[in-house]
Amino acid sequence: MTQKVAVLGTGKIGEALLSGMIRGGWAPSDLLVTARRPERAAQLHERYGVEAVSNAEAAKSADTLILTVKPQDMGTLLTELAPHVPAERLVISGAAGIPTSYFEERLAAGTPVVRVMTNTPALVDEAMSVISAGTHATGAHLTRAEEIFSGVGKTLRVPESQQDACTALSGSGPAYFYFLVEAMTDAGILLGLPRDKAHDLIVQAAIGAAVMLRDSGEHPVKLRENVTSPAGTTINAIRELENHGVRAALIAALEAARDRSRELASGSG
Asked: What's the CA gap between 194 and 202, in Å, rounded?
């Protein structure tokens, strides 16, 4: 891995990506970082041994630029970068809701842009990063993005037209599970368990169920049926979930998240 990579706007996700790359074999000497605050840049240098530079310096010297600033700050960053980014430079955007065309219009003609939607489990190397090519990005550019983001979890290539759906399902997905764990913890307390014990029981159940889904190859319906005995406790609980429209509520929630992603992409909100 001899190409130089710069992470611009290195916040929590950017730092998770940086640390994952180093664990994956990237040399700190091949990595650059930028940060808005000098003390943050110094912290990253001390922690990882990477060089902290300005955005303009990163654009001039790195082969790949990974833009991890907030979506509302992206326009300002691109204005700063545009004079310094040559057309062959790979630009990877981690900003939710912003299409590759937004970058292509503001950078040199022909600049390859790859859009990546990752999620917060990147902080524990269990992310799902969804990767899409812009107009000028090739298979080699997608492979480079996969090499970078595989350090913090799994990657999946999709057409950019599916990014909004992936944002709703995977980008926001961890929040739905946290919401469910919160509700189940409250239920455990109502049933007479101390909060810490209810929390531990539910978290381990979630981990075990996720590993079984990943490793067994079974359909979730089959795994659920294995737990659901005739006239037992589980089927009574499932009946109440169906009576309260939980399945329909989840579908409606994901549609709302997808629609909001589309709104953000269009600049209407």
From this structure: 12
Neighbour tally for 170: CB within 10 Å = 18
Structural tokens at position 169: 């399902």
Sign of CA dihedral 239, 244, 248, 250: negative
Using CA atoms, how far apart are residues 10 and 121, in angstroms rounded to an integer? Answer: 16
Q: What is the pLDDT of residues 161-213, one digit of tens each?
A: 999 999 999 999 999 999 999 999 999 999 999 999 999 999 999 999 999 99
Task: Report the residue count for the chain.
Answer: 269
Number of H helices, E strands in the chain: 12, 8
Asked whether 265 and 255 are in contact (CB, 8 A), the reply is no
Q: 3-state class of 31 per DSSP?
A: strand
Predicted model pTM: 0.89
CA separation for the pair 47, 19 (Å, rounded)? 10
- What's the gap between Cα 237 and its chain centre? 32
**Around Cβ 215, how many Cβ atoms within 10 Å?**
8
**Predicted pLDDT of residue 95:** 87
